[in-house]
Specification:
Elements (H helix, E strand, L loop, with lengths): L1 E6 L6 H14 L4 E6 L10 H15 L5 E11 L2 H12 L5 E6 L7 H6 L2 E4 L7 H19 L8
Parallel strand pairs: 1-2, 1-4, 3-4, 3-5
Helix pairs in contact: 1-5, 3-5
């Protein structure tokens, strides 16, 4: 069982790298965890459709047929941390070799990626910076494991 966190950002910031490293280290106590950054072809910001298409192709090329894809999208299903932990347990216990969590690019993801995703979850009802979304998603995945394992982290 491996969890893969897939994103489409070439932008890096020290604060984000530090937070990502922290959560990857924490998550490694619960599951084999990997961060993968895809770098699709550069498209002009003025041509959002071309950018989404390039990113969609890169995502679909990366995915293996047997992968379970979980998409984070502001139009996805909103869950409490406790309900998200139930979903993480279900995914972890699914028997799939790889669970791939995806945060799409600045203009979202193509319909083919949405169709490929088993589930779509919202991190929040608003759009957030890609780097912030990564940290929030990783923290919620970590929080889920602490809920599942009944560890003293989640105080609800």
């Amino acid at each position: 069982m491996k969890f893969v966190f897939l994103h489409l950002s070439s932008a890096r910031e020290d604060w984000c790298d530090g937070a990502v490293d922290l959560y990857v280290k924490k998550l490694s106590h619960f599951v084999d965890f990997e961060i993968v950054a895809l770098k699709p072809k550069k498209a002009s910001r003025s041509d959002a459709a071309a950018k989404v298409q390039d990113e969609t192709e890169a995502i679909l090329q990366y995915l293996k047929p047997e992968d379970e894809l979980v998409l984070f999208d502001e139009r996805g299903k909103a869950l409490t941390s406790e309900k998200f932990a139930i979903e993480i347990r279900r995914l972890h216990d699914s028997g799939k070799k790889r669970i791939v969590f995806l945060i799409g690019g600045a203009f979202g993801v193509g319909e083919d990626v949405k169709k490929r995703a088993r589930v779509q979850f919202a991190l929040a009802p608003f759009v957030m910076n890609h780097l912030v979304a990564q940290v929030v998603a990783l923290e919620q995945i970590y929080r889920s494991f602490t809920i599942i394992k009944n560890l003293p982290y989640h105080n609800a």
